[in-house]
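Journal club prep, notes for RB
We'll compare a predicted complex against what the paper describes. Inputs for the nicotinic acid case:
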Amino acid sequence: MYHNRSVQLSTDYYQLSMGNVYISDDKKDDIAVFDLFIRKNPFKGGYTVCAGLEQVISYLTNIHFTEEDIELLKKHHPEFSEEFLEYLRNFKFTGELYAIPEGTIVFPQEPILRVKAPLIQAQIIETTLLTIVNHQTLIATKASRIVQAAGGDPVLEFGLRRAHGTEAGLYGARAAIIGGCAGSSNVESEYLVDMPSKGTMSHSFILSYDDEYEAFEKFSEHNPDNLTLLVDTYNTLESGMPNAIKLFTKLKGENKLPKIYGIRLDSGDLAYLSKECRKMLDKAGLQEAVISASSDLDEYLVRDLKLQGAKISLWGIGTKLITAYDQPALGAVYKMSQIEHNGQVMNKLKISNDPGKITNPAYKKVARIYDKASNKALADLIMLDDEIIDETQPLTIFHPVYTWKKTVLTNYRLKDLLVPIIIDGKLVYDKPCVKEIQSHLKDELNTMWTAITRFTNPHEYHIDLSQKLWTLKNDLLNA
Ligand SMILES: Nc1ncnc2c1ncn2[C@@H]1O[C@H](COP(=O)(O)OP(=O)(O)OP(=O)(O)O)[C@@H](O)[C@H]1O
Ligand SMILES: O=P(O)(O)OC[C@H]1O[C@H](OP(=O)(O)OP(=O)(O)O)[C@H](O)[C@@H]1O
Ligand SMILES: O=C(O)c1cccnc1
């Protein structure tokens, strides 16, 4: 890092200035409930892949302010009372966190994280929780769409050099793997995902030798198991391909052809070039050679290239994945839904002229309703935490705005989406590794109708409120 980061100060000033007031107003021990949720699926899509919980856990279980932090705050903020600074000196997260596990498909309005904690703590952690979840959820969703377009071909994340900083590159790589990428070029990501980073070679490597063949040959000497040659530095069909084929044929003759070998295209008409390259490789008896491609690709171009019959079976995706190019921010929010003062519990909602922006009050949970026959998800139901639904009885769900739109479900089962993560400041959750999260997402996608996951005009998944929650919300609005 360029300087030692103080992630505890990676927050907005107003969280601290409000904390300063909570201390002097004796409100710090009020117990607040906050929900973190998205308002819209990104990329005009029909679903979102949640990610970032592992970093949220690490943040909440380690957060503390150092003496250096306190000195910095003292120097710049004479408005902070000594009592507040003393509070920060001893700061620890002592509250509760429930969360939807990473790699789960989530939808607008439903809590992805639910925090219940002393007000000052729940407030101070807001910005960082949003930063982590907004970023990784956005990139995991983008990756999932690209992987879907690739239709089973491996996708490699190549974006670090175009990321908005090294931290975005690192956690973006993690999120891309959660979303289904087979690997990343980011070497630091090996710490997070426990798999080797992957890659090919750059144009500068080839330019550094007097001729292209020599560059290929030298590279092959040090890459006996996995060899990908970049063929477009001078002329793909006239130079790069003949040189690559010459080397592969020589290695084959010497019984030294790596188990995984092939070429990468990085410019030009990828459909045309990949078909021509395939013909040349096949003609030379190199049917196993993999053709990979990169060049400003995204899910739409991958889908389009497949429609054009491109002979590409490995995709390197950089800029448009790591920056979530067509939608650079997710817009998840963190809203208060309940506060308890002197033992009195008050449910809260934020009013807006836009009905979609009115928040849901109370201490809530989310259940996913599955059709037992198809095992597909039908709808999610947000309800009060203590509500119990008898799954043997028919269940009526209704649209929260157009309430006359009702469905009666019979052959269904429910699954609670929020699980306990931290209780009384202590971790109670067995964290899965990134590969397990990736595999969880695969299972999740199998429970979704393609109408929800398709790119164009996806069907809107039902997110309903239970009758009790709907009534409570409307009573609060009327009041
Ligand atoms: N067959 C194709 N159909 C649709 N888009 C394609 C096809 N082949 C390539 N593309 C895309 O078109 C764009 C090509 O852009 P452009 O021609 O500016 O650069 P390039 O071919 O990569 O060349 P250079 O890197 O030398 O500038 C890239 O986004 C690439 O993914
Ligand atoms: O196209 P993207 O999806 O963003 O994928 C990453 C890009 O980064 C590299 O290009 P760059 O020009 O930076 O380096 P190079 O000279 O090695 O090609 C690589 O060749 C890809 O084109
Ligand atoms: O290994 C590669 O081919 C690679 C890595 C980063 C960016 N572009 C390509």
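Talking point for the session: Residues 7-139+328-477 form a domain with the nicotinate phosphoribosyltransferase fold (CATH 3.20.140.10).
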